[in-house]
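Friendly challenge for the regulars: who can give me the structure tokens for this chain first? No prize, just bragging rights.
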Amino acid sequence: MSVSQPKKLAIIYILLVLERFTSASERITQQRIVELVEQEYGMVLDRKTIRHNLSKLLEAGFPLEYDELERAGKNGTTELIHTNWYYSPEVRFDESELQVMIDSLLFSNYLPAKQCKDLIKKVVSFGSPEFVKKHSSAYSAVVERPANKSLFYVISVLCESISAGVQVSFDYFDYDTDMKPHPRLDDNGKVKLYVISPYKLVSLNGRYYLLCSSADHDKLLSFRVDRIKNISLLDSKAKSVRSLKGYKNGINLSDYISEHPNMWGGEVSVCVFRCPRYIMNDIVDWFGSKAGITKVDDDTIEIRVRISEKAMLHWALQYSDCVEVLFPESLRNDIAKTLREAAKRYGKDTV
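First reply, four minutes later:
Bragging rights claimed.
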């Protein structure tokens, strides 16, 4: 049912109808605009009013598109009509880019389910009406998981501290078999308070990390952002990252990630391993284009990378059926020891 409304709202309602119901592939006539304004907003307009306000919107620079057609007029004349109207805003994202963002959110392992769903809805809203309709239930694929409901507050405080160059304090927790978070404790059995200098936030393998340092370490540390709670912004100035061992020129994230796959810490050194050529895709996925490659024969290659030895140990174990670490000798020995211990656990006496 129509209701009495100020006619000045007509131009707003017309614009809203065009924004909500049209796209390059879904265009509407002036008569359809009349119908939708009454249906959605209860205002009855005639086609003359529609035509007048469309002209005003065009004059004001709104991104409206239409087809210009000729039709027979009175006394054998022809006249131009404007039809097939649609709203054509400047495209901020290609729909393939929106799809990548949606998929990235769906497979993130740190976002609370509700916040993840809300973000997906916002990303979907940037698409065309067809895109919105197609992805109206995309958020239903979000997996429920234990989550830190204060995650976005933690991120906002970390961003503020990085920008201001000051320290933060927080508690850090781990999950136990009850699937609940339990704070880490100090040597006296009390909740351990971490005081750190934050530098970078890094998203890697579906997880979100903080790169930072503490007063009692001369190395770069990493923490899972989704396991930080009770964070506070401090007045104390953050330690310069350039004062840390190996970072006098700051943090190069590309180098850091290639040297610390899965964010394992430890000393970074040159490692050499031998592997079959057919796992080159995996080599590129893990180490990027900075890996040095030497051909041994048609089927075998040697790879030289700079990497944390802890990270290399765990990576090599994943590929133990086809990778042999050649250098350094200490790492080679650690891998052999780990495999021997694993073999004992899976020996015949345990079957």
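The first strand starts at residue 64 and ends at 72. Residues 64 and 284 are 46 Å apart (CA to CA). Your move, everyone else.
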